[in-house]
Amino acid sequence: MNNKNINLNRSDLEIYLKKRFPTLSTNQIKSALDEIFDSIVYAVAKGERVEIRNFGVFSAKKISPRKFVNPKTKKVSYLSETTTLHFKPSKNLMSKI
Fold it and tell me: How many domains does the chain have?
């Protein structure tokens, strides 16, 4: 498996989709991406796992409580448990990268 760090942001995705589907307007592409991303975030926030075949899986990842030190004031503070959005790419996607 290839472990290159490849970054793909939203604007890159919009450009790719505009080239792939030239009949769609930029606003149509943006609104479609908004709908897709919003529904993924909403489902994961409800505790569901979102799997897109041959692309990957979106899920919630819990980060345990921890302490941290402010480097400027040296004050010790504590962060409670947090949840973040986690993406695991599929084997198919990783082989294409």
Answer: 1
Per-residue DSSP letters for 64-94? Answer: --EEEE-TTT--EEEE--EEEEEEEE-HHHH
Contact 35, 43 (CB under 8 A): no
Going by C-beta distance under 8 Å and a sequence separation of 6 or more, which residues neighbour residue 26? 14, 18
Give the Cα separation of 33 and 12 in Å (integer): 12
Q: Is residue 1 part of a domain?
A: no
Is residue 5 domain-resident? no
Neighbours of 44 (CB within 10 A): 20
Which pairing describes strands 56-63 and 66-69: parallel, antiparallel, or unpaired?
unpaired
How confident is the model over 1-53, as pLDDT tens digits? 455 666 778 898 899 899 999 999 999 999 999 999 999 999 999 989 999 98
The residue segments making up the domain with residue 16 are 10-96
